[in-house]
Amino acid sequence: MNHLSHLTTPTSGELRERWYEQSRAAGWAFVSDWHHPAVDALCEACLLGRNIWAPAERLGAVRAEQGVSLGETLADLDGLACLVPDVAEGVIQRAASLGWAERMTRPHLAVFDPLTGLVSVDYLRTRLGEVYQAADVDGAKVSTTHALVTVRLNLAGRAGWDRLTPLILAGDAMRSVFDGGHTLARLADHMAVILTDRAPTLGRRTQLLAELVAERLRRERRSSDAPARIWIERLPDHGRAATDLIEELAR
Fold it and tell me: What residue ranges define each of the domains in the chain, with the CATH number in brackets?
């Protein structure tokens, strides 16, 4: 059934919103991560008759980076095909599958995100491994020596590149407050963390970061009533549990 049949000239934004609502109704696990500029690019290509291979391949890579399984990615694209039945569903599925597979198998070479200046989640995992190895040698518990300062951004009502602005502003604030000897990482469009030692000043620094992020987001034209939530996350005493925690925070 073509759910856009009642619209004379649907826009890419209207298609995106109907696709999003359909995905949420179908049980997309983490709705805050669904929107991405790759979604907008694919919607535009579908409606304007452009080549859909490149945006579909890009979206597949994005879903892999977000930790979404290939099955869930393809099921979601089935929903898009129901909304625009004239588009070649098989092409979208093949392109997305290729993008997903290439992202999952390529070497993790990138360390810094060029937009935010934050390090990648892969580099964060490497640093966590070093912290846990050092704790084993010293006979210490990581839960008492280190912590994560977690920044969760509210991206409701944002789409396309507009979703990236809060993270860019938050990343700049993170570098201002935690300015040396800390690992500042981007986990997702809405989530960033700081791996830091549990110094006596940690609570005060975290509060200062919350104030600075709130101030910068208030100045930004699309700030909301609850632009960010910032807290200190306790690290578990075992490295495998820490990896699971990072994956959970990233969703």
Answer: 12-105 (no CATH), 121-250 (3.30.70.270)
